[in-house]
Amino acid sequence: MYTAAALLFPRALATSVTLPMEILQAASQMASIAQRGQNQVRFLLAGRDRQHITLGSGIALKPDVTLAELPPLDLLLLPAIWRNPLPAVRAEKDWLGLLSKHAAAGTRICSVGTGSFLLAEADLLRNKSATTHWNYFGQFTARYPEVELKTRHLITQSDNIYCVGSVNSIADLMIHIVDEWFGSRIARAVESQFSPEIRTRFNDAAYQNEADSSHHDEIVAQVQQQLQSNLSTPLSMAELAATVQLSTRTLNRRFKRATGLTPLSYLQSLRIAGAKDLLRHSNLSVGEIAWQLGVQDVSYFSQLFRHHCDMTPLKYREAVRGKLFTPGVRRSV
Predict the structure, then answer these.
(1) How far apart are CA 30 and CA 13, in angstroms?
(2) What is the Cα–Cα distance from 155 to 206, expressed in whole angstroms?
(3) Final residue belonging to a domain, choices 155, 174, 208
(4) pLDDT < 50 positions in the chain
(5) How many whole angstroms separate alpha carbon 242 and alpha carbon 248?
(6) Which of 8, 16, 61, 258 is a Cys-bridge partner for 112, taking CB atoms 3.0 to 4.6 Å apart?
(7) What are phi and psi of 157, to 5 degrees?
(8) How do residues 63-120 score in pLDDT, each as one tens digit?
(9) What span, in angstroms and rounded, lies between the C-alpha atoms of 179 and 24?
């Protein structure tokens, strides 16, 4: 069982706690089916004491444990701070040492929005990458000049410390964690319940400082570029391997070592991303989309899309179109 916790304080933003909590609980319920109904995630709310805490938005939550009672954790969540973060940083300064303790123990610590001010105040971001809510970039940089603020990334990772810039981005990160803990099947199922049309893949959104977060294999990078540039052209793995003078077996092994995926899996991920974009922004038929992405068999394409997204292309288009709108444009009735 995985143990996660969120730290509560009066100026915390409720949705930055409840959304990741519900995502992890949904994953726990799905994963428990194979474990005879035993929950797979324990999510705790922690506060100075066990009295109800009224948060910045007026919502009251009751801690399950005190800060001193927190057990060893797999995940520790720092909520976003409502409005100006500095009053909360000053008010909560006495327990910031707790963050250093958990970081040293290897706990994955995630801050949401201006929750990264708490990490920086605890000196856990010195010479590391971080992000925060866009409205407080200037204030963050002025107060913590030793932190490498990434203003163009909504998610950052430095070892076991994660920062996300918004509540939407904590959903992206939680899906990534669910994938790591329980696998892609459960991650996709959870994603389909939590607005699949707005999610950004963690690997696309995140700035990572880990040594293995990117590879340095020039041959593999060349193959990746070929796949991206010739997405609409059907290409066999043997032909692809020949372009870089490798055997198919060697290319597969080398590509997977560098990226964690086989060339075919990488190609499929590109096609699914392209299909989502076309389903969202065009009126092309499923067959036309498949053809543009280099897949001649529409039935196979639909099966591939459903395998990756747990819904058909048309269902995905319906879900996406239900959320699209153009500000300032009124429809005649």
Answers:
(1) 27
(2) 4
(3) 208
(4) 198, 210-213, 323-333
(5) 8
(6) 16
(7) -135, 130
(8) 999 999 999 999 999 999 999 999 999 999 999 999 999 999 999 999 999 999 999 9
(9) 11
Q: Is 17 helix (H, G, I), strand (E, B) or coil?
A: helix
| Domain residue limits at 109 | 2-208
Q: Are residues 29 and 107 in the same domain?
A: yes
Question: What would the DSSP string read from start to end of 152-193?
Answer: T-SEEEETTEEEESSHHHHHHHHHHHHHHHH-HHHHHHHHHH
The pLDDT, as a whole number, for residue 212 is: 38
Q: How far is residue 318's CA from residue 315's CA, in Å, rounded to a whole number?
A: 5
Question: Looking at the domain assignment, is residue 275 inside a domain?
Answer: yes
Neighbours of 229 (CB within 10 A): 9
**In the block, which residue shows the tokens 């959104």?**
205
Instruction: Report pTM.
Output: 0.66
Q: Which ranges of the chain would DSSP assign to H, the alpha helix?
A: 15-32, 86-91, 97-104, 116-121, 137-143, 167-182, 184-193, 202-205, 218-229, 237-243, 248-259, 263-281, 286-292, 298-309, 313-321
Q: Is 37 exposed, middle or buried (0-12, 13-18, 19+ CB in 10 A)?
A: exposed
Question: Residue 102 has which token pair?
Answer: 């958990």
Q: Tell me, yes or no, whether 175 and 256 share the same domain.
A: no
Q: At what angle do helices 313-321 and 298-309 cross, to 10 degrees?
A: 60
Query: Considering the domain boundaries, does residue 276 fall inside one?
Result: yes
Q: Tokens 């201006």 sit at which residue?
A: 114
CB-CB neighbours of 233 under 10 Å: 10
Q: Are residues 118 and 250 part of one domain?
A: no
